[in-house]
Specification:
Radius of gyration: 17 Å
Largest sheet: 5 strands, mixed
Order of helices and strands: HHHHEEEEHHEHH
Structural class: alpha+beta
Number of strands: 5
């Protein structure tokens, strides 16, 4: 059904008229940063509480990781305190992980792995790479249970739409925030 809807939207030219991430970036810049962090925290709990075992996060206790969604201009810092993830951590990040919206969606839905994106220069890591790799390995081990089922389903749908929209943008000659990698 989703595939049929995506094909119809593409055929009718609707996808190419959807706002690009650059358009959303302008809108998001107008919002208070705290609102974005609270919204992200709420989204993680849509399907009910989804706990990461406290021992799995011990290596991140009181350490800060920054996530940069480049095409949206978003910078979110996360840390672990008392075995729980906290969004909006204050202070200097020890490692920064950067990618586009679509690439983070592909990671979250496990349609792409971090190594592939990294080697194709679509995922970047600066700072304490050992911390970043340990976080990646932990998330890979917990990936199936990390997101509530309802959120996982919506994420899959949104990723389908984002991929179809990107294809439509390219077909229509609409540019992206950064040049496409030669490996895509």
């Amino acid at each position: 059904m989703r595939d049929l809807l995506t094909r119809v939207l593409h055929r009718e030219g609707v996808l190419a008229r959807l706002p690009t991430p650059q358009h959303w970036r302008r809108f998001l810049a107008l919002l208070p940063p705290g609102l974005l962090v609270k919204t992200a925290g709420f989204a993680l709990h849509l399907g009910g509480p989804s706990e990461i075992p406290g021992a799995a996060l011990a290596f991140m206790e009181d350490r800060i990781v920054a996530i940069e969604i480049e095409d949206l201009g978003l910078h979110i810092q996360i840390s672990a305190r008392s075995g729980r993830l906290h969004l909006g951590a204050e202070g200097r990040a020890e490692v920064t992980i950067s990618a586009s919206t679509l690439d983070f969606l592909l990671l979250a839905t496990q349609r792409e792995d971090a190594d592939t994106l990294f080697f194709h220069r679509r995922l970047r890591m600066t700072g304490d790479t050992a911390l970043g790799l340990q976080l990646r390995n932990t998330l890979d081990q917990l990936a199936q249970d990390l997101l509530p089922a309802r959120l996982r389903q919506e994420l899959e749908r949104f990723t389908d739409l984002a991929q179809a929209a990107q294809h439509a943008y390219r077909s229509a000659g609409i540019s992206r925030a950064r040049p496409a990698s030669p490996y895509q």
